[in-house]
Amino acid sequence: MRAPAQPLQVLSPEGFSILAAVADRTCPGGEGLPGAAEIQVAEKIDALLHRMHPADGPELEQGLMFIENALVALLFEGRTTPFTQLAGPDQDRVLRAFRVSAWPVRRKVFRVVTGLCASAYWGDRRTWAHIGYGGPPDYSSIDMLGVP
Amino acid sequence: MSGFIRKGAEIDGDIDLTCDVCIVGSGAGGAVLAGELTARGVDVVIVEEGGYYVREDFLQLEEAVAIPRLYQERGTRGTQDKAITVLQGRSVGGTTTINWTTCWRTPADVLQAWRNFHKVDGWDPDTLRPHFEAVEKRLNIHRWPMGGVNRNNQPLLDGCRALGWEAQILKRNVRHCVSSGYCGFGCPTNAKQAMAITYIKDGVERGLRVFADTRAERFVRDGRRVVAVECSVLEADRDRPTGRKVVVRPKVAVCSGGAINGPALLLRSGLDGDGRVGRRTFLHPVIGVSGLYEDPVDGWSGAPQSVSSHQFIHGPGIGFFLEAAPVFPVLSGAASRQFGAAWNQRMSEMRHMSSLIALHRDGLMHDEPGGTVRLLSDGRVALDYPVIGLLEQAFRRSHEALARVHLAAGAREVFTLHNDPVVMHTEDDVKKLAAAPYGAHEHGIFSAHVMGGCTMGEADHCVVDSDLRFRGVDNLFVVDGSVFPSSLGVNPSESIYGFAHRIAPTVAEAV
Lengths: 148, 511
What we know:
The complex is a heterodimer. Chain A is mainly alpha-helical.
């Protein structure tokens, strides 16, 4: 299991590991971009969950278990290996299958998990050089032109 | 007599107070109403579940800070199936704190449709005109100068002109705007004339009392009257009750929590309008198509929206209008359904990316049910919104329109937000869009304009009457975008300002 860089506030260690594995595939880094682990994407999501409704964390955890669970995977995809133990390209195939699944709950899980990962990743300053974004301007000393 | 804005951390014990009018929500509807009522000498209390922020709080303009702080559900709100991302604000000022300042009066044809199908009485352009003029004056709503069109909006203007399509420069509620482009994260210069620095400020100077971080849990009734509004004080920046309570005992209560939260409050209060509350919720569902240009666009800089095209607003079928959406790392990065190295490559082109959107005018056709707001057993609110065939057909047409605009404007490459993006380089490539799938989870769909859920009018299916009074309750009004019987086909903020201004004397009379 992947150990978090910060103490977990909401996710279980297993849920965190699954989330970290998904983040590694959705936000892989490379060519100068830091990877999801360096950005601490899964840790950031755990911290966000701490600020949300108490039911949001368990619901996300359930979705992560859905991705990981080998028995469920056997029914939908014919695989028996848990997600976290798959090789990278196979993990990508699982995520793409979730994305277009005929089952609404799998599509929902894909959208929630990947959306959280992307938000946490691209919200970090260390990704901005890659996209040519210099960051927000500094208005702390702007002449307020008489505006209160 | 001066009022106040009190944060949750400043509320150190239970509070029980009386007033003339208690307004739940401090957004476009609640704030204008409060400002107008206090000007008439009415004693008003606002309870607002979001936090209170001033200009200095907005200087940290990073999305990672601003979005969880200022958006509903920390920026994660969406339909229950998560096919549609929903952006709504949460703060003193509501969505006006984070909107992109685009202002339009309510279109006459929409008001006519409401009169015809929902028997809305007394809301015509002539009646509304003085109210729009008043809010336009207070909020400095004016047409943005042509020179202020940024490079993200310019392709919409250029492309429409090249195609012979209608396009115009739109109006914004700003004063001394420096065109930072960061309207969506709270204005760092107080140029945006959001509710917190206008109508709320006006009201506080006249005695308005605002309790921030204070969530209304329910309206308490005695027979046909609301006798109390029970509220929980929340931990600053966390959705957790502190245990402290605020109880407001008004003569008149007003629900201005916005579409979704407003109907949710009514449902928690046992006010379901015979099953009608929460139904007919409309979203202006949005799709996006991006274009890559040779010269840098830097779509985060400059007024977020300055151009609009209503070329296709009248359909066929569900019509749509075209605008731009600013380009920011999180807003753009999380919009796609792609992931991995392929999306990293796309994001590396962000400086050259113009993002254009189509907003679909849902709710005006007879066979459009709209969405439904409901409560989950754990207290959360859910929005179900079926993406019906009519809307899927409109999505195909709007994708084609946006692609053609980009190409006519000189984009070297155009791509969609499909699971497998459709990539186009020439007008001939637009034909590829016909074979792409459209609908829930087939491509990105978003909403920043939630409307409906408490339909106004005299028809049997309406929740509030033409005076915005909740049916069956003598002293409860709904004053926000949830009263709209359909979406508008224009950005809704000015309509909400104007409607609140129009109804203020009626609410004052009810005290």
